[in-house]
Amino acid sequence: MQRTITRVLLILFGLAEAVQGIWATAIPMGFYLVFPGFRSGWVAMDGPFNEHLIRDFGSLSLALTAVLIGAAVIGTTAVARMASIAALLFSVPHIGYHLGHLAHFPVADQVLIVVTLALTVVVPLATLVLPGRREEVSSPATP
């Protein structure tokens, strides 16, 4: 079984993915122009608008949401680790791309981009390496 911290991390990461997934899928132009919301234009500063690409990113984020929150609900360590691997398969190339394409952003945005994307790698790494909760083994009744 999973530790509580694993479930919390899976749910928090899943909710963050849900926000960007719903936003990018439902309102791709708004996502393109305004993401992440507290600083605007991170996506717009990286190239021309492509509705297909934004909607695909949103749908992928929603699929990852289902995997992460589903893993928390199922509650086994094996499923949590599988969800973590799925998240890393997305997050590692994603941060890799952005690390190579930061120069056109203001310094404050560069730092925020690296920190927020680093979290998308650190959180699944943490859930991948956290040990599962030990099952209590009941001893057989003695006569």
UniProtKB/TrEMBL annotation:
<keyword id="KW-0472">Membrane</keyword>
<keyword id="KW-0812">Transmembrane</keyword>
<feature type="transmembrane region" description="Helical">
    <location>
        <begin position="111"/>
        <end position="130"/>
    </location>
</feature>
<keyword id="KW-1133">Transmembrane helix</keyword>
<protein>
    <recommendedName>
        <fullName>DUF4345 domain-containing protein</fullName>
    </recommendedName>
</protein>
<feature type="transmembrane region" description="Helical">
    <location>
        <begin position="82"/>
        <end position="99"/>
    </location>
</feature>
<feature type="transmembrane region" description="Helical">
    <location>
        <begin position="57"/>
        <end position="75"/>
    </location>
</feature>
